[in-house]
Amino acid sequence: MEKIRELITLLESGVEDYDTQMKVLQTERLKYIRLSITDGFGTEEGDSKESWLLHLKQLEDSLALRRRTIQQAIVETAEDIQKEENA
């Protein structure tokens, strides 16, 4: 039962972090769309179209990693519980 409690705690914080990061990504995507529509991209590093695309890609990759980490924690906990039940 302790492993289940640990997993619940991990999932609560992990999902909360994931949701926060997803909101950031959505906000940044809207900014990108706004800049695309108004042709408001700059020419300097950090405000160019390429920089924005890289920034969005990094946010997406971070979310994917968070999701995989949560999934892996679930799998590992399930395996541990199964081992305990079979012991």
Q: What report would you give on this structure?
A:
The longest helix is centred in the C-terminal third of the chain and has 38 residues, at 49-86. It contains two helices and no strands. Helix 1 runs antiparallel to helix 2. It has helices at residues 2-38, 49-86. With 87 residues, the protein is mainly α. The protein has one domain (2-86).
- Radius of gyration using CA atoms only: 19 Å
Question: Which band does the percent of strand residues land in?
Answer: under 5%
Can you count the helices?
2
Strand count = 0
Instruction: Give the overall shape.
Output: rod-shaped
Helix content: over 70%
> Which segments are poorly predicted (pLDDT under 50) over 5 or more consecutive residues?
none
Q: What is the typical, i.e. mean, pLDDT?
A: 93
Structural classification: mainly alpha
Give helix and strand order, one letter per element, not per position.
HH
Largest sheet: none
Q: Domains counted in the coordinates: how many? A: 1
- Determine the N-to-C terminus distance: 15 Å
Characteristic key phrases:
87 residues; mainly alpha; 2 helices; 86% helix; 0% strand
Which secondary structure elements does this structure contain, and how are they paired or packed?
Elements: H1 2-38, H2 49-86
Helix pairs in contact: 1-2
In short:
With 87 residues, the chain is mainly α. The protein is 86% helix and 0% strand.
